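Researcher: Let's try something more involved. This one mixes different molecule types, so please make sure each is placed in the same coordinate frame as the others.
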Amino acid sequence: MWETIIQITPHAIAFTIPLLIVSLGGLYSERSGVVNIGLEGFMVVGMFAGALTVSLLAPAMQGTAIWAGLLMATLAGAVFALLHAFACVTLNANQVISGTAINMVAGALTTYFARLITGSGNIVIPIAMPRHNLAYLADIPIIGEMLFSRAYASTLLALVILAVSAVLIYRTRFGLRLRACGENPHAADAAGINIYRMRYTAVIISGALASLGGAIFLVTIAGEYNGTAGGLGFLALAALIFGQWKPIGLLGATLFFGLASTIANVSRILPYLAHIPDIVLQTFPYVVTLLALVLFSRSSQAPKALGEPYDKGRR
Amino acid sequence: MGVVVEMDNIRKEFPGVVACDNISLELRQGEIHAILGENGAGKSTLMSVLFGLYQPDSGSIRVRGREVHIANPNAANRLGIGMVHQHFKLVSCFTVTENIILGLEPTRGMFIDTKLAAEQIKQLSDRYGLKVDPHALIADISVGMQQRVEILKMLYRNADILIFDEPTAVLTPQEVHELTKIMANLTAEGKSIFLITHKLREIKAIAQRCTVIRRGQWVGTVAVADASEETLAAMMVGRAVSFGVKKAQTKPGEKVLEIENLHVRGRGGVARVKGISFSVKRGEILGLAGVDGNGQKELVETLVGLRRADEGRILINNKEAGGLSVRERIAAGLAFIPDDRHKYGLILDFSLEENMILKSYHKQRFATQGLLNFTAIRAYAQKVISDFDVRSGRGAGALARTLSGGNQQKAILGREIDADPDLLIAVQPTRGLDVGAIEYVHRRLVEQRDSGKAVLLVSLELDEIFALSDRIAVISNGELVGIVNTDETDENEIGLMMTGLRREAVR
Ligand SMILES: Nc1ncnc2c1ncn2[C@@H]1O[C@H](COP(=O)(O)OP(=O)(O)O)[C@@H](O)[C@H]1O
Ligand SMILES: [Mg+2]
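Model: All components are placed in one shared frame. Result:
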């Protein structure tokens, strides 16, 4: 049993990391009061930008191309997020509709460009992110073995982003103002905070991180861009609710999802799970997600002004 | 005494209304300057212009002699102007400290220095006698405390021109008393205050000068000491106001509402109404007096059908009504004017006409085969609006949110009275209203009584209870302390009964 856990943990972590980054992306946007159901779309954009960059640069740069791909994905996400921000913040559009549009446009637009540039709707990357034993960290007992041996460097990157986000949101000026915008924009406005600028910033960070998450998914698991992120963006959205819009909560939620889907995937080769019907195991992550959402949405800690366009004159 | 603020010919229009029509006024150093006007007169708008929330269409502002352009609240802050809004602008899941420093956070390195901020806030709070705990969560503290947090917000920003927008509307009498003392402390330290209100008694108690505004227009600025409450009221409303309500004697008829031994539990299963029995007859107003939170809320909710009784009977027109749904009770002749008009009275984001048919949309005259008949609805809404003098910038199509409180209340009154009920339950029907609107509501309620309806008036204001009621029932801690005829008692006796003493003991 213990051995199995040690065995499957790296797989679970690999799946958790992109999910974590994407849901952190969602966190920024939603903490500022803008719903972002476009996470899936931003992931697709990130996968596209990443795949294109890696496949173009790999011959010349080898491994460094991976990092160039992640960077390009992040930038592409930030730029694409301007669309969502413009609709939701400048035009006061319905945020759910704008997010849906993002999801639809992302797939269509990137597929179009993929065809235009490479002649095919799929971009397979020639190299993947390597796994290493991370220096020092891998030597920590138990945790080192589970998290940092044979691990992707992106794991470390994700944990750093998580830690920075937690500090940023709870300890800094930016974080306090961000949360105020999501809870009560009228209070923030009266305190002299520019709601529009805060929300633009938050949505841009959101797009950047979600696309980065998409690119990490690409270079660690997916291996190719094919116009979809397989619903991972929506899972990240669920993690956001499950994790109650808190950085540490997100870590827990995404880890849980990561474990659940890994168990579903490896169940066939684990002898003591063999007698459980396949369908139960395969649907397990989704059923659990659904149950978790039903249970958790009752005591929801969602930002109070989430989804409401800010209207200065409204009393 | 120097002049710190001069507003000159300020004009501000909203679609369909001129909220401020070339208003001029000045604030002197160290004074409390009251701004008096009915709801919708433009008081909040005028002060919001000074605070930079709105840009005036024309006119100029001078602060300490210098002409200024106040583009936003930040600019106002830099000029030392602070404002406590009618609806507080606080983040309820933040602490007191976080709310106060928001936008002006002291930092150490990259991080917010909450400790330093909390200390500064504690000092400020002590200096002005505010008794605020810097670490408390806003969600956990009383409305009165929240208001002090708003005051601290201004003081933390070193404001010395303070604007209070109807600060007493949400406070208990004790809290009002303390606020008065705080304001006196503030002016003693050299701050100057604009106090928006429509309560004449408060103006007489604390203000030195008073500017009266009526429908966006400047009516006059007077020294408070030289003006009586009657003059001020007349200036505000534009005609002489009678403070007492004229009531003819009537002969009560048969019982419309009868409750017997009613027991109700409130939130968390606590017994809130403990065996109450009384009746209300045709042609009488029964006033239910009591300190807030003594079971009035639960009793009323049970009567209108929002809550179930554990025990006891409710009869409307001699028919058992305890088991009826809300709609069935309405059909049985019950009408209801709730105290929280935003929560229970109106749907703020619906238009006025939609709000007018909330209780009758299913009737044949407004809907055929499940489709709403908008022509009939609009015609009906327009009739109620003109019958009840509801003033709205854009007529029946205006969103309920855009109306002033007094006009929202008149709209509710219109809807409920127009349904021609047998029993009218009015809870705090004049809460937050100005003298003119209060007089109007009172007149309408008496009119209902005179036309043979039964009226149950629940109010926390003894003045109101005495002005309207034929009989007064006193509730304390969920029990009925007693019922007395209004002309056989006085405020003192009722006040003592409200503490739970029986009448025999009071005498
Ligand atoms: N943001 C707004 N949009 C449209 N109309 C408004 C707005 N604010 C106030 N009004 C209207 O302007 C008038 C004055 O309102 P207000 O200044 O709030 O009055 P008061 O504070 O004296 O009760 C009212 O008729 C009100 O309906
Ligand atoms: Mg006002």
